[in-house]
Amino acid sequence: MTGSGAGPVVAVDVGGTSIKAGVLGASGRLSDVDRTATPAAGSDGAAVLDAVEAIVRRLAGGARPAAVGVVVPGIVDDATGVAVHAENLGWADVPLRDLLAKRLGCPVAVGHDVRAGGLAEHRAGALRGASDGVFLPVGTGIAAALILDGRVYAADGYAGEIGHVSVGHDLPCACGGRGCLEAIASAAAVARRYAAATGTTVAGSRDVADLVRRGDPAAVAVWDDALDALAYGLSMLTGLLAPSVVAIGGGLGESADLVLRPLAGRLAARLTFQRPPRIVAAELGDRAGCVGAGLLARELVA
Amino acid sequence: MTGSGAGPVVAVDVGGTSIKAGVLGASGRLSDVDRTATPAAGSDGAAVLDAVEAIVRRLAGGARPAAVGVVVPGIVDDATGVAVHAENLGWADVPLRDLLAKRLGCPVAVGHDVRAGGLAEHRAGALRGASDGVFLPVGTGIAAALILDGRVYAADGYAGEIGHVSVGHDLPCACGGRGCLEAIASAAAVARRYAAATGTTVAGSRDVADLVRRGDPAAVAVWDDALDALAYGLSMLTGLLAPSVVAIGGGLGESADLVLRPLAGRLAARLTFQRPPRIVAAELGDRAGCVGAGLLARELVA
């Protein structure tokens, strides 16, 4: 390995199913994203740490990285770099930043996947220029990144958990609660509920969207439920935070024609004097978290 | 009048029923609060402006004030000092700061009554030391002041309108919506719903609280509904913003023994992995807005 600062800045987004990673070029732009399957992990996170270390070493091409940014799901304390809780990865209080910095011998920034994605959308995507904006990926789960007065709001890692606020239905949620937005409106919930209603398995919410376009009544009913619940959730966001713009991402965001306008209409019907946000499609797709990880890493060497 | 800077700093809190005002002493502490009935007002706000001008002149004792802080309800743009919308005062787009500065010949700061109250509770009350805290006065209406990362969050005046987020009931609200938190859980709603259920008029929520303590079933039912709705509203706040502390004020806050612990319990029952806030009583009572107005004015002369 060469001396500190000689190598590249590496960005890593650890997801429940895949680890995405890339290298930041001199211009600050992220390279093509490299994808690896996420290993199953125990509560100490060792297997995932091994995988992240191997990916970073490979992308750094033998040089010691100048800095590494790693973003992960769950409850993450950005300030201390501790992964407090990540259901999908089996993590509890893993001091990710310190462990990785020791293994890699370079400065490491640790952040939250959705907040990092929100940061990326704010710097270089759909939230550009917004003082108050929300990045809302609707995928396997639902969480929001809150940009308030131009800064990402974290609340020690607990902010933005709109996926687990009740929207008044009675379905159980993986979190142990009932009525959660995520349980009826996530891309995964839409696919699952369509399969449960019809006995026909679908690969994901995109298949349900195709069925909605063809007028399939069961698909329309499931989609309507999801949009109504999302509008309810957005009415909470609007009443409390009044963002000027909400950028929808994730699997459901890929079917923008069936989401953006219907959602804006349903939200407007729920408001009286409040200021409705513009509802737009997120722009960075599933690279958002990785771009955000790169931004966090870049701050370490700026 | 004497020259600019010679006179006192005057703080004014314009409410729907009374105008509270006071003078800041050399130590920065507010004098005893002076109370005057709020005059009925047209959409240009002239009658209220006349009243505010007269009160300030009286409290300044003939001197030109060094600065004046005025806080008002409704939608207020703190940055421009415009009262965008105030249902109770009949105001629409009144350029309050500029009008008062011209009348009084001194710098004027205009703010929102609840956000100013939150600022005061943060500087000198129940939210002292909290990085992320919420001031939640539950009175005639319900609105929240959000202190996020140590700063008051305003969103151009639209933030904190938790009173008009649906908590899933079917009662109409003064805002024109249905299901609003305010329509079932404000101090006014509690008194109104008790009267409607029993045919017995009560002066306010404190009377209902007394009846709850004596086991009156109708009072208990109305109080339970209010607490359930407040817990629902707080679960939204907790999921989205994860404040470390929520300070309950207003009329309902005066019955702290029947509010704080029951509310914490009901909120906990609605959460799974989220971080519950401490729920405490606000400390500044109905002086909070006026103290906040004084803080805003003081910033003009600091």
Structure report:
The structure is a homodimer of 302-residue chains. The first copy, chain A, is an alpha/beta fold and 302 residues long. In chain A, β1 and β2 (18-24) form a beta hairpin. Chain A has 2 domains: 9-113, 2-Layer Sandwich (Nucleotidyltransferase, domain 5), CATH 3.30.420; 126-283, ATPase, nucleotide binding domain (Nucleotidyltransferase, domain 5), CATH 3.30.420. The first copy, chain A, starts with 8 loop residues before the first strand and ends with a helix. Chain A is globular and about 55 Å long. In chain A, the strands form 3 sheets. In chain A, strands 3-2-1-4-8 form a 5-stranded mixed sheet, with helices on both faces. Chain A has a 5-stranded mixed sheet with strand order 11-10-9-12-13, with helices on both faces. In chain A, α1 crosses α2 and α6 (205-213) crosses α7 (217-241). Chain A has helices at 46-60, 96-104, 113-124, 182-185, 187-198, 205-213, 217-241, 250-253, 260-270, 288-301, and strands spanning 9-14, 18-24, 34-37, 67-72, 75-77, 82-86, 91-94, 108-112, 133-137, 145-148, 151-153, 245-249, 278-281. Chain A binds chain B through residues 75, 85, 132, 144, 146, 148-149, 151, 153, 155-156, 158-162, 164-166, 168, 173, 175-177, 232, 235-237, 239-243, 270-275, and chain B through 75, 85, 132, 144, 146, 148-149, 151, 153, 155-156, 158-162, 164-166, 168, 173, 175-177, 232, 235-237, 239-243, 270-275.
